[in-house]
Structures are given as structure tokens and as C-alpha cells.
Amino acid sequence: MSTTVYIPCDSAARSVGADEVALALLAEAELRGLDISMVRNGSRGMLWLEPLVEVDTVRGRIAYGPVSADDVAALLDGGMLDGAAHPRCHGVTDELPWLARQQRVTFSRVGVIDPLSPADYAAHGGLAGLRAALGMRPTQVVDAVTESGLRGRGGAGFPTGIKWKTVAEASDPTKFLCCNADEGDSGTFADRMLLEGDPFTLIEGMVIAAYAVGAVEGYVYVRSEYPDAIATLRRAVEIAYEEAWLGADVLGRGFPFDLEVRVGAGAYICGEETAMLDSLEGKRGMVRAKPPIPALQGLFGRPTVVNNVLSLATVPAVLAGGAEAYRELGVGRSRGTQVFQLAGNVAQGGIVESAFGLSLRDLVEGFGGGTATGRPVRAVQVGGPLGAYLPADRLDLHLDYEELAADGAMLGHGGVVVFDDTVDMGQQARFAMEFCAEESCGKCTPCRVGAVRGVEVIDAILHGSPDERGANVEILEDLCELMTDGSLCAMGGLTPNPVRSVLRHFGEDLGLTPVSAGAPS
Amino acid sequence: MSVQEWSADAATEIVRAHSGVRGALLPVLHALQERFGHLGPEATRLVAKELNLSRADVHGVVTFYSDFRTAPPGRTVIAVCRGEACQSCGSRELERHAQHSLGIGFGETTADGSVTLDQVFCLGNCALSPAVQIDGRLVGRVDADLFDRLVSDAAAR
Ligand SMILES: Cc1cc2nc3c(=O)[nH]c(=O)nc-3n(C[C@H](O)[C@H](O)[C@H](O)COP(=O)(O)O)c2cc1C
Ligand code: SF4
Ligand code: FES
Which of A224, A262, A344 is nearest residue B126 as measured by Cβ atoms? Predict the structure, then answer.
């Protein structure tokens, strides 16, 4: 009988040799006359174990990792196809504490199924959400999403149902739906892994959204840095058309929805929704002034829903399980689950999806197992390049929208980047300004000029005369204030976040004594 | 399909294949760059004419996005991630090594036309940092040795 072996096609897994392992395994199996069938699944998200090979046995899927091509022969000798013990064997995948402690909702199928198999998708609960939605009136679907408490996972945390309602109620007969798959925040990769590991979930979520708001055309704007995700998603869209999940008559229910994949061109600012719309229209990605909001005048001036990949990919689960069930997860005004991405200098990095309420310590020390280098954690940047750096003594913060905001930090897209005690926080502050200077769309002066000036001032603080340091810190603080107050969008407006957090928590790296650093808020 | 010499006929065909596409400019520019390796003045001119845009508009878009190249790249293109997760795992040293060993800065091509070195801010491989992308292929946990090997393997291809 044929043994099923899973080796991820996820680009992170491939980046450390998954393709080579797959080839080696196929070659060895042929040589030995072993009957295996290989599935290239998404990644389970335990990225430190990649390439992770799973073997289907009577006990369930047994995990081996990290496996290199050179290990394959010895693993086969040792009985890997029967799930035999081995130093690289971790037992039944689903029972691994790292996974078992999670609550996977958005990521429930990622790493489990063949990403491009409609049969696999259906067998694992796919389309249940869409079928439920199609049994309701569009307004009821909007209400269900509102009641679920789902908030946008792209960064701003705006309630998804409320955005949909605005678009649904707009009178324009032409409405658009745009999925923001620009995932520009460093330290984040959940959108990519979902696109590569379970693209049908996003498509299903978009069909539900289109039905709910009355959009007949949709776009997914994927950053060009993700060639594998683009290829997988394009193929998934083709298959979805073949299966009539997309097209003129979705599921034979008489409503049309067309979906197209568009590719970005290397501009961080195109993750900002209005810049993304300009880019989709074929223009430079310049941020638009709001109002008008995209929900009323978005793509080509039409009412447009813009949602992040994870927001849309969560919608099928919300509809399938019911708003109430989703809402029951989480704390306060942060409902449901959050997909954290544990990254940087961390021993066990990857995808941690859990109901809101985890502390940073649970993540970094519990799941992450501390730093990869084994040195003490010094700083954690939460929420991407515009997020604050938190010092090790703030690890007890809970990761929900409100608690983070109260500490000047933000959840953003859920990226958590760990640094050990060798980090030079002065350089991290400088980089925040440098990144803003590099990626500013240039529309407004506080951002365009302020960021360049910010780099200069930080250089002066770091390398200039100590006598002038105090004055330069004041200039930097004024600059941060100007950028915060005077920028049109969050690029310029939030770049001061990481800079101020360095002033506040790591002043010694700017040559400041704790006293002269003060405590700028 | 590998990169080809500029051909106005082939280019026109590519642009016209996008007729009916809303906001076609970016898809058109991507397709042309994929075919011809870069977007020279002849490409800008042709796209402007075919899409009924001003040359300034097209030029403005080409220069806004860091993906679009106005000069041919090297035979191998390596992008080194400069994002924070990679920084936490030593990418600053890798950046220095890459520039030093190739003798060029970011955005430049070696004199022999073999390698173009680009910077990128995050490749979505932040738990396996530092990351680079070489000719579209993602590589994780890159140190100086692996970087050198990637470069020499590419040269041997
Ligand atoms: C500079 C900047 C970059 C952004 N980048 C992204 C991004 O890469 N992906 C994303 O979904 N949202 C990004 N956003 C947020 C979007 O503007 C928008 O809020 C989001 O796509 C809405 O979807 P959601 O409600 O589902 O989160 C960015 C915002 C700013 C200001
Ligand atoms: S803040 Fe920066 S990125 Fe945002 S609109 Fe102004 S210049 Fe553009
Ligand atoms: S920060 Fe380098 S891959 Fe994300």
C-alpha cells in the first residue's frame, strides 16, 4: 500500500531545502522500490523545523524535522515510513505542544491539505462558509460578520462588518472588492503562508464578501516579493473558475463574481489602502487624502471594500461556525483569534494562531523558547516597522488592540520580532527613519523631509559631540511630533513610534543617561 | 521565457494583449520587463502611445516603483533583505559582506554584468533570517559563506 508523505511547498520551507528533500526522497523511494505518494502541502508554521516531513501512519501524521536531503537515506533505513522513532522524529504532528496549544481558525487548513486540491479543500470543511452565506440574505451576512467582532487584520483593526455595511448600502451599481496582499511589514509572513498553503480560503472569503456587499469584480494585490504565492494564487483562481466557485454563476446560485490577481512592484506604501488603489488603477502609489473613504469612493471612484488577506480568509470560518462561536474567542474588544508571526532572533519561530489574550511573554518565551542565539532578549518589535520596540521588562503586556495601544505600541499585522542583547538600538531608531525616507510616497512634507532629517539628527546624536546631544534629542523629539501630527498617513505618522520607543526605553544606546533621556510620551 | 532583445512588434503585442484590462499599466510594465529584462526609453514611448498616456505619466510610474529597471540587470539578481527580523539575525553584516565581496552598492551591477545587487525590505521569511532572493528563489538562514556559494553557483549556471 502506498504511504503518503507530506513535504511543504511553502517558500520558507523551500528556502531551507524542502525541494531538495522531496527530490531525494523520490529518488530513494524509486531505488528501493518503495510505494510513496507525495503531497506538497503548505507549512504547519513551525518554521524552525523546516523542512518538516510528515508521514501518514495509523497513529496519524508523524513529523520529522528539520530534514536535509542528506538525512533521507538514513531516515528511510530507520523506518521513517512506518513512523519509527528517530532523533529528528517529533511524534504525531497534531499532538506537538507547540501546535496543540494553538487555536487555529484562519490557519486551520494551512499545512494540512494540498493547497490546490479542491477535493482536499472540501473534505476539510472548505465551502461550508460560502454555502451558509448563500443561505442568508446579503445583509444578514454583513450582520453576521459585524456580530462576530472580526476586525481588520491589516493593521488598523477597523471592524470588518461595518466597512462592508457602508459598501453594501452605497447605491452605485458598480462596486469593487480588493484584497490587500501587499504584506509589506517586515517580520510578517502570514498572508504569504496562507496564499501558498490554503488559497481557496481567501477566494471563498472574497466570494462571501462580494455576495454580501454586491461587488461583481475583485482584485488581489500581491507584492512582487512573493513569486511563489503569486503562482499558487493564480493557479487557485483558475481552479476556482473551473469549479464554478468564481465566474458568471457562482455555485450555480445565479450571482457573478470575477477575481483577478495583480502584482505590486516593490513599494511599501502600496500596502496603504488608497495607495494600493492608485497602483491598481495603473498610477504611482500615492496616498489619497480621506475623505472620501474607499468604501464610498475607492477603486476608479467606486464603492470599494479593501480588506487584508487574513480578514477575508477568516470570513469563511465565521460563517461556517457562526458569529457567536467566533466572538466567544478573545478578550475585550479584540474578538476571535490573532495570527501572530514570531520572527527574528527566536529559537522557535513561526505561526502562532491563538485567541486574543496571549501575553508577549507567552509568545516569546513560551512558544518562541527565547532567542535563537541563547542570549537574553533585549527588545521585541511588535507590529512591523512602524511598531514600537518594547524592552524585556514589558513582556507581560497582553497582545490585544487596546492593551498595546495603551503602551504606545500596536498589534499591526501581528508581527513580533525578537532581538537579543547584542542589538544596537540606536541603529534600530536610525533604520526606522531610513526606511520611512526610502518608502515615503512623497506627498507630504513632514514625512518626506522629516524622515531624511530624522536620519541626520540620529546620526548627529550617535556620532556628534556629546555636548550637542541634548539639543539634538530635542530636535528629534520635535521632529517626531511634527511627523505624528502633520503626516497624511500612518507611514509618516507612525514612524516616530519605534524612534520614540528607543528614546524612552533604550536611551543609553543613543548615548543618553536615563535621566537626560527623560520620558517622552 | 528567457529575456529577449527589444522588439517593437513583440512589445506591441504584449501591450495589446492587455486591452480590456482595467488599470493595465502595471501589468503591462511587468510583462514587458519580464520579456525584455528592463524598460528602456523605447518601452516607455511605446507604452505611452499604445495606452494613450503621456510619456511623463509612464516614466513617472516606472521610476516610482523599485521593481522597474530602466537599464538591463546583471545575469543574476540578488536581493538582500534589510528588514528588522533579518537585522536581528545578522543581516547588517551580510549587507556589508555582499557589497564588499561584489564590490558594488545596492542597486548596482558588477562591471562584468554578472550580478546585480538589490536591497529589499522583507521577503516574508522572517523566522528563517537572514533571507535573500536570488533570481526569484528565496533562500533562508544566509551567512557570508552561503552568500558566496549562491553567487558562485549562479555564475556557474
Ligand atoms: C504605510 C502603510 C502600509 C500598510 N500596509 C499594509 C499591508 O501591507 N497589508 C494590509 O493589509 N494593510 C496594510 N495597511 C493598512 C491598510 O491601509 C488598510 O487599513 C487595510 O488593508 C484594510 O484591511 P483590513 O481592514 O482588513 O485590515 C497599511 C497601512 C499603511 C499606512
Ligand atoms: S505620510 Fe508619507 S507616505 Fe503617507 S502620504 Fe505623507 S508622504 Fe506619503
Ligand atoms: S525581515 Fe527579512 S525576510 Fe522579513
Answer: A344
Identify the pLDDT of residue A127: 98
Pick among A186, A224, A346 to test the B interface (most B CBs inside 10 A) = A186
Chain A residues in contact with B126 (beta carbon < 8 A): 186-189, 341, 343-344, 349, 415, 417
Name the packing angle between helices A199-213 and A190-197 (round to 10°): 100
Q: What does the CA dihedral A294, A298, A302, A305 come to, rounded to 10 degrees?
A: -60
Q: Among residues A365, A399, A419, which one ends one of the domains?
A: A419
Q: Quick check: ipTM above 0.95?
A: yes
Note whether residue A449 is domain-resident: yes
The yes-or-no verdict on residue B30 having pLDDT over 70 is yes
- Whether A108 is covered by a domain: the verdict is no
Looking at residue A408, its pLDDT comes to 73
Nearest CA in chain B to A11: B138
Superfamily holding B76-156: Glutaredoxin (3.40.30.10)
CATH number for position A72: 3.40.30.10
Q: Does A274 lie in the same domain as A186?
A: yes
As a whole number, the mean pLDDT across chain B is: 96
Give the residue from B125, B83, B89 showing the smallest Cα distance to A372.
B89
SS3 content of chain A, % helix, strand, coil (to 5): 50, 15, 35
The residues, ordered by sequence, that sit 6+ positions from A66 with a Cβ below 8 Å of its Cβ are A16, A48, A49, A50, A51, A52, A88
CB contact, 8 Å: A382 with chain B? no
pTM above 0.90, yes or no: yes
Domains identified in chain A, total number: 4
Are A344 and B138 a contacting pair at CB < 8 A? no
Question: Which residue shows C-alpha cell 481588520?
Answer: A152
Decide if A186 and B131 are in contact by the 8 Å CB cutoff. Answer: no
What is the pLDDT at residue A515? 52
Q: Which of A287-291, A516-520, B15-19, B149-153 has the lowest mean pLDDT?
A: A516-520
Where exactly are the structural domains of chain B? Answer: 8-64, 76-156
Residue A510 in contact with residue A466, Cβ under 8 Å? no
Q: In B, which residues are within 8 Å of A389 by CB distance? A: none
Whether A352 maps to a domain, the answer reads yes
Whether residues A259 and A363 share a domain: the answer is: no
My answer on whether A383 and A338 are in the same domain is yes
Report residues of chain A scoring pLDDT below 70: 514-521
Residues A251 and A295 in one domain: yes
